[in-house]
Amino acid sequence: MGIQISPSILSADFARLAEEVAVISDAADWVHVDVMDNHFVPNLTLGLPVVEALLRHSALPLDCHLMIEDPDRWAPAYAEAGAKSVTIHAEAAKAPVRTLRMIRAAGARASLALNPATPIDAYEDLLDEVDMILLMTVEPGFGGQRFLDLVLPKIRRARDLIRGRDLDIWLQVDGGVAADTIERAAEAGADVFVAGNAVYGAADPAAAIEDLRALAEKKAAHPRPIGFGRA
Ligand code: DX5
Ligand code: ZN
After folding, report:
1. Does 145 sit in the ligand 1 pocket, CB within 6 Å?
2. Which residues make Cβ contacts (< 8 Å) with residue 22, sequence separation at least 6?
3. Is 50 exceeded by the pLDDT of residue 24?
4. Distance between CA atoms of 36 and 53, rounded to whole angstroms?
């Protein structure tokens, strides 16, 4: 899989969600849906009923990012409803292995998110359980924040871990991704890019997606072939 763009509807008009998704349908790969419960993060957005309604109206697969206190209780239901990717937070899950397996068993891609201050190294042994790692490049809770460059070394480490194990795991970044930041995230090894403000704040959201994709493709880290450099 190459570069993928997953626009976040957090920055869209919540009163016209179906139309807002239609606007990006030809240009985007996913629709990123931010579920917030006002406990794990200090903001409240939407939950399963709205996701079920979106599933009936979206031509794109849903990428559900659960910023909620009890993902073990709720995450499998998003997969069962038909979301094609479900992300839980490492900081919130009490039984991440069981929950990730339940997401996969329900037919969705299972993904684990890490906040900026959460190290990747502690989750190395869980890599076989995930289809994607989401590295937050802002503190979660709100759109329109500044990209945190301090996450770049973690993106590189995560990409090296994935490569070292020869796994096909996508590496998503979320927060402050825009034309002036996407290149360094791509260069560090990210391949799935969430963008809220940079897409829905643009006059032409579809054109903004194509611009972001072109910038990321230009900088995408080229995989080092296994065994390269060895005698
Ligand atoms: C933040 C959310 C993001 C947010 C990104 O907690 O997880 O998905 O919508 O918005 P931008 O791209 O505006 O930073
Ligand atoms: Zn998100």
Report:
1. yes
2. 59
3. yes
4. 17
Q: Is 89 in the pocket of ligand 1 (CB under 6 A)?
A: no
What is the number of the ligand 1 atom nearest to the C-alpha of 175? 14
Q: Which ligand is nearest to the CA of 182?
A: 1
Separation of 97 CA from ligand 2 center, angstroms?
21
Supply the pLDDT for residue 1: 85
Strand partners, 110: 86
Q: For tokens 């090894």, what's the residue?
A: 189
Is the confidence at residue 222, as pLDDT, over 90? no
Q: Please give the CATH topology (third level) of the domain spanning 4-219.
A: TIM Barrel (3.20.20)
Output DSSP code: residue 221.
Answer: P
Closest ligand 1 atom, residue 136 Cα? 7
Q: Ligand 1 pocket, 7 CB below 6 A?
A: no
Q: Is the pLDDT of residue 224 over 70?
A: no
Give DSSP secondary structure letters for 143-174.
Answer: SSPPP-GGGHHHHHHHHHHHHHTT---EEEEE
Alpha-carbon distances, residue 28 vs 31, 118, 179, 200, 209 (angstroms): 7, 29, 16, 12, 7
Bridge partner residues of 33 (DSSP): 64
| Closest ligand (CA of 9) | 1
Tell me, what's the pLDDT at 229? 44
**Whether the predicted pLDDT of 226 surpasses 60:** no
Q: How confident is the model at residue 216 (pLDDT cuts 50, 70, 90)?
A: very high
Distance CA 148, CA 175 (A): 8
Nearest-5° angle of CA 104, CA 105, CA 110? 10
